[in-house]
């Protein structure tokens, strides 16, 4: 797979990752290499990565607890303290090895430590490979509210080694598929069609799909790096998805949903809203709902659940003047931004989703 060039950094794949990494460590006058991982990636991914890391520089490893609940400013403070105690300076480099929590949080830590140090993202989950590690968004949650604190700051590089996917449990693989489905729905109808039947999917097929997803996201980000307009289309499914994810995180009686599981629900709900606004056809809606529900289990919501989720919508980052702004589909392969949606239609979307 060819390297993708972006403004300010490169996205490299598989063997090219380690050639680049050795070159960049040799050519830059770094003082120390810091590696941030969670306890899962530290066990399953870090040994293989370190075996490819040929450098005489001192290497310091910082480990955090896994999971969305640890994507917090409190975890950042712990990492900042650890880096300080281990002698990090602005000429250190931070390599973030993990899923979206690690790359989001690590990018924010590096962007703010001593007003900024270089960092490299090494995504190890499917979701992080195709979405979280690409585009320069860094940050943490504020309580259960997703991605409320952060900055846009690009890494030195993103290194995508698809061999790390062999370490993932099935739910995490499905979670990443949600973002890939989204890329097809908002930008490439032919790419979307490849997900209508995933039986017989080979490793090579998956590698090509990952590459196309990264191309789509990178193309959108390149045209609108600071999310003034077009980049908002990448939030399709996320207005409802983030509110659902937050609700399940804060509700003790519910098992938390993975990010992709919540976004999958959000895409069906927002596709239903698109249908009712006559932006997609009934046939397109049925196709979207059928494909997504063939991959993800249906989750049941009570009226109380829905009411609480609606309250969380007011915190969505796209909102302007207190109005919730949705991204909706304008046919499969296209999207429109800044759409107002009334609560009654959202309730109807939940009813249709569950039936």
UniProtKB/TrEMBL annotation:
Its EC number is 4.2.3.4. Residues 62-174 form the 3-dehydroquinate synthase N-terminal domain. The keyword Lyase applies. GO terms for molecular function: 3-dehydroquinate synthase activity; metal ion binding; nucleotide binding. One of its GO terms (cellular component) is cytoplasm. Pfam families: DHQ_synthase (PF01761), DHQS_C (PF24621). Residues 176-319 form the 3-dehydroquinate synthase C-terminal domain. Keywords: Cobalt, Lyase, Metal-binding, NAD, Nucleotide-binding, Zinc. It comes from the Bacteria. The keyword Cytoplasm does not apply. One of its GO terms (biological process) is aromatic amino acid family biosynthetic process. Gene3D superfamilies: 3.40.50.1970, Dehydroquinate synthase-like - alpha domain. It is an enzyme of class 4 (lyase). Its cofactor is Co(2+); Zn(2+); NAD(+). Catalyzes the conversion of 3-deoxy-D-arabino-heptulosonate 7-phosphate (DAHP) to dehydroquinate (DHQ). This is 3-dehydroquinate synthase.
């Amino acid at each position: 797979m060819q390297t993708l060039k972006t403004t300010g950094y490169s996205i490299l794949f598989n063997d090219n990752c380690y050639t680049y990494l050795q070159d960049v460590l040799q050519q830059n006058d770094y003082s120390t290499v810091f590696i941030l991982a969670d306890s899962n990636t530290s066990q399953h991914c870090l040994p293989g990565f370190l075996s490819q890391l040929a450098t005489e520089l001192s290497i310091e490893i910082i480990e955090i607890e896994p999971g969305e609940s640890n994507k917090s400013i409190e975890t950042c403070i712990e990492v900042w303290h650890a880096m300080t105690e281990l002698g990090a300076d602005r000429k250190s480099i931070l390599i973030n090895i993990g899923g979206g929590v690690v790359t989001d949080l690590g990018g924010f830590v590096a962007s703010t430590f001593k007003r900024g140090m270089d960092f490299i993202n090494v995504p190890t989950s499917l979701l992080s490979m195709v979405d979280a590690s690409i585009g320069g968004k860094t940050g943490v949650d504020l309580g259960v509210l997703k991605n409320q604190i952060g900055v846009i700051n690009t890494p030195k590089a993103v290194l995508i080694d698809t061999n790390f996917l062999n370490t993932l449990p099935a739910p995490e693989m499905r979670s990443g598929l949600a973002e890939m489905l989204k890329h097809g729905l908002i930008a490439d109808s032919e790419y979307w069609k490849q997900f209508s039947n995933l039986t017989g999917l080979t490793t090579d097929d998956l590698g090509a799909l990952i590459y196309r997803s990264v191309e789509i996201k990178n193309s959108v980000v390149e045209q609108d790096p600071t999310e003034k307009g077009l980049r908002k289309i990448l939030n399709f499914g996320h207005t409802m998805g983030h509110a659902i994810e937050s609700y399940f995180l804060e509700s003790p009686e519910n098992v938390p949903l993975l990010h992709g599981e919540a976004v999958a629900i959000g895409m069906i709900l927002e596709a239903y809203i698109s249908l009712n606004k006559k932006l997609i056809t009934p046939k397109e809606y049925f196709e979207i709902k059928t494909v997504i529900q063939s991959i993800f289990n249906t989750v049941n919501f009570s009226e109380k659940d829905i009411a609480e989720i609606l309250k969380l919508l007011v915190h969505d980052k796209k909102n302007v003047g207190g109005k919730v702004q949705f991204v909706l589909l304008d046919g499969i392969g296209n999207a429109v931004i800044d759409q107002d949606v009334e609560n009654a239609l959202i309730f109807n979307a939940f009813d249709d989703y569950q039936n």
